[in-house]
C-alpha cells in the first residue's frame, strides 16, 4: 500500500502503542490517587506513571515529527467530518501536551527531578507559582478525563466510518487493504 492509502507501519505502531499507554496511564492514575501511604504501591506506582508518561511525551514528539516529515493518507468523509476529524486530532495533541506539562509541574514542584526508571532524570524547574502541585493536579485530572472522552469519541467515529460508511478510515490505521 502506498502512504496515501494507508498509514505506514511506524504511524500505526505509534498510534496503537500510544492508545494503550494513554488508557493504561489513565487507569493507573485513577487507582493511584486512592493508595494509602502504607500501600506497597505508594512509591512504585507514581514512579512508573511518571516514567511512562515522560516516555510517552518523547514518543509523541517523535510522532509529530514523523507526521510532519512523511506523507499521510487523506481524511475521508463529508467536509464537516474532515474538519471535525482534524479539530479532534489537534485537540488530542493539545490535551496530551497539557497532560505532559501539568504532570511535570506536579512532580517537580518540590525541586526534585523526575527519575525515568534508572535511565535518566528530567530536571526540575522547581515551584514556579504558589500551590503549583494542587493546581497542576486539578488540571491533570480534568484534562485526562477530557482526553479519554475524546479518545472514546475518536474510536466510535472510526467504527462508524468502518461499519456504517464502509470507507477506509479504520483500515488505514489497522493496515488492512483499502477497498
Describe this structure in words.
This protein has 5 helices and 2 strands, in the order H-H-H-E-E-H-H. It has helices at 9-32, 41-69, 79-108, 132-165, 169-174, and strands spanning 114-116, 120-122. Helix 3 (79-108) runs antiparallel to helix 4. The termini are close together. The relative contact order is 0.15. Belongs to the cytochrome b561 family. Its main location: membrane.
Which features characterize this protein?
mainly alpha; elongated; 179 residues
Question: What's the short version?
Answer:
Belongs to the cytochrome b561 family. By secondary structure, this protein is mostly helical.
Percent in strands = under 5%
The best one-word shape is elongated
Uncertain regions spanning at least 5 consecutive residues: none
Number of helices: 5
Radius of gyration: 18 Å
Helical residue percent? 55-70%
Distance between the termini: 11 Å
State the order of secondary-structure elements, H for helix, E for strand: HHHEEHH
Q: If strands are numbered along the chain, what order do they take across the biggest sheet?
A: 1-2
How would you classify the helix and strand content by structural class?
A: mainly alpha
Quick one: biggest sheet?
A: 2 strands, antiparallel
Mean pLDDT: 90
Could you give the count of β-strands? 2
Family: Belongs to the cytochrome b561 family.
Keywords: Cell membrane, Electron transport, Heme, Iron, Membrane, Metal-binding, Transmembrane, Transmembrane helix, Transport
Protein name: Cytochrome b
Pfam families: Ni_hydr_CYTB
Amino acid at each position: 500500500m502506498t502512504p496515501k492509502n494507508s498509514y505506514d507501519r511506524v504511524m500505526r505502531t505509534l498510534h496503537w502503542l500510544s492508545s494503550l499507554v494513554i488508557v493504561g496511564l489513565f487507569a493507573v492514575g485513577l487507582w493511584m490517587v486512592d493508595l494509602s501511604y502504607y500501600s506497597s504501591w505508594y512509591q512504585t506506582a507514581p514512579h512508573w506513571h511518571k516514567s511512562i508518561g515522560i516516555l510517552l511525551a518523547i514518543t509523541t514528539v517523535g510522532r509529530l515529527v514523523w507526521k510532519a516529515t512523511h506523507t499521510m493518507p487523506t481524511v475521508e468523509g463529508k467536509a464537516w467530518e474532515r474538519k471535525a476529524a482534524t479539530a479532534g486530532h489537534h485537540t488530542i495533541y493539545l490535551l496530551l501536551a497539557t497532560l505532559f506539562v501539568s504532570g511535570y509541574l506536579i512532580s517537580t514542584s518540590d525541586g526534585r527531578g523526575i527519575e525515568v526508571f534508572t535511565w535518566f532524570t528530567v530536571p526540575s524547574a522547581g515551584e514556579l507559582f504558589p500551590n503549583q502541585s494542587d493546581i497542576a493536579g486539578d488540571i491533570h485530572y480534568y484534562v485526562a478525563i477530557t482526553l479519554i472522552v475524546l479518545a472514546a469519541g475518536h474510536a466510535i467515529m472510526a467504527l462508524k466510518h468502518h461499519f456504517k460508511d464502509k470507507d477506509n478510515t479504520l483500515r488505514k490505521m489497522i493496515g488492512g487493504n483499502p477497498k
